[in-house]
Design brief:
- This protein has 6 helices and 14 strands.
- The longest helix has 15 residues.
- With 256 residues, the chain is an alpha+beta fold.
- The mean pLDDT is 97.
- Helices cover 23% and strands 24% of the residues.
- It has one domain: CNF1/YfiH-like putative cysteine hydrolases.
- The strands form 3 sheets. The chain has a 6-stranded mixed beta sheet. A 5-stranded mixed beta sheet has the order 1-2-14-6-3, with helices on one face.
């Protein structure tokens, strides 16, 4: 892997410390080679700690990085005055803060990372939107938590980072039917696949949920984790290749 940490940024979040990172610039080796930041990946804890340090320094030097124990839920927590240690991470899939010097981190390996900000209120958020969390309303809960800190949804801007693209994301009929049962208009996010299967556009679905929540503007970066093994980790790609483990990339946002 390259020595320099690759930081993908969103135009809508320009000026706010943030970044959607990939696997470039880390010290891990083997199947998880690169900037693996997954505490549950089975990688050497010392290497993970160094990767997380490098990631934080690339986005907001000197900040305190906090993350959650992700469980594909809609739950969101607030990082306030009392911050938790990595070993005590709360079970949730989104975080918000209005505290300068706090860096919110979300891990992904095909799921959609979402970073949000209300510049005027000085409030930011980060959400892990896999399909379960997305349909369960994790982004809606994140917006509500930001509002509890003084944000207003019409001022909030959001960006959807690297995730598995529709061309890479085959799902079965049961998956398809679950989304249509939630809202028939969700048919827009599926394309025909091989018999009995569909191709699901997770990125577009998450962006649409954000827009439907009344956010000011939403940006999708259009980066496919599955098809770029040199840049991103992918759970589905690792599974298809029969790899013993898979890495996790981190997406970060904070306030100066």
């Amino acid at each position: 892997m390259a020595d320099t940490v690759e930081v993908n940024r969103a135009g809508l979040l320009d000026g706010i410390p943030h970044g959607f990172l990939g696997r470039r610039g880390g010290v891990s080796t083997g199947d998880v080679a690169g900037l693996n930041t997954g505490l549950g990946s089975g990688d050497d804890p010392m290497l993970i700690a160094e990767n997380r340090r490098r990631a934080a320094e690339a986005v907001l030097p000197g900040a305190r990085l906090v993350s959650v124990y992700q469980v594909h839920s809609p739950d969101c927590v607030t990082a306030g005055a009392a911050l938790w240690a990595d070993a005590d991470r709360p079970h949730a899939d989104a975080l918000v803060t209005d505290r300068p010097g706090v860096l919110l981190g979300i891990l992904t390996a095909d799921c959609a990372p979402v970073l949000l900000a209300d510049r005027e209120a000085g409030v930011v958020g980060a959400a892990h939107a896999g399909w379960k969390g997305a349909i369960g309303g994790v982004t809606d809960r994140t917006v509500e938590a930001m509002e509890s800190l003084g944000a207003r949804r019409e001022r909030i801007v959001a960006a959807v980072g690297p995730c598995i693209a529709r061309r890479s994301y085959e799902v079965d009929e049961a998956f398809h039917d679950r989304f249509l049962a939630e809202d028939e208009s969700n048919a827009l996010f599926f394309a025909a696949g091989r018999p009995g299967h569909h191709q699901f556009d997770l990125e577009a679905y998450v962006a649409a949920r954000l827009a439907r929540a009344g956010l000011g503007r939403v940006e999708a970066l259009g980066l496919d984790t599955y098809s770029a093994p040199d840049r991103f980790y992918s759970y589905r790609r690792a599974t298809h290749k029969g790899e013993a483990s898979y890495g996790r990339q981190i997406s970060l946002i904070g306030l100066r």
